[in-house]
Amino acid sequence: MSSAKTKAQNIIDQNGVAVFSKSYCPYCKATKELLSKSGAKFYALELDQIDDGADIQNALAEMTSQRSVPNIFINKEHIGGNSDIQALKKDDLKSKLTAANAL
Ligand SMILES: N[C@@H](CCC(=O)N[C@@H](CS)C(=O)NCC(=O)O)C(=O)O
């Protein structure tokens, strides 16, 4: 496995909620606001602020067929992007967050 892939996978495995993000991205901001409003603990990695951000984004594209950010995982499950997490019913999001020990 490439080191970027290993790094991405470790972040997914070690965090109940992992958000691969970019600091200037409005969709990422909306996702982080939704999670914060839901009272969830989450780990956000700002790919534009780290040297290997582009490599990690490429690794995520290979792993999930999704290149855009935010790229969201809850309890190691790939949720998708901001539109996907916003589309979850409130109760569904809550049960995923509970199962991930994020609430
Ligand atoms: N439909 C996507 C839109 C996400 C999106 O367009 N993100 C932009 C950044 S704001 C992106 O990933 N652009 C390509 C890039 O940054 O490499 C979602 O809801 O997450």
Automatic annotation (TrEMBL):
The keyword Transport applies. InterPro entries: GLR_AS, Glutaredoxin, Glutaredoxin_euk/vir, Glutaredoxin_subgr, Thioredoxin-like_sf. It catalyses: 2 glutathione + H2O2 = glutathione disulfide + 2 H2O; 1-chloro-2,4-dinitrobenzene + glutathione = 2,4-dinitrophenyl-S-glutathione + chloride + H(+); RX + glutathione = an S-substituted glutathione + a halide anion + H(+). GO terms for biological process: cellular response to oxidative stress. GO terms for cellular component: cytoplasm; nucleus. Keywords: Disulfide bond, Electron transport, Redox-active center, Transport. Residues 17-79 form the Glutaredoxin domain. GO terms for molecular function: glutathione disulfide oxidoreductase activity; glutathione peroxidase activity; glutathione transferase activity. The keyword Transcription regulation does not apply. This is Glutaredoxin domain-containing protein. It comes from Aureobasidium melanogenum.
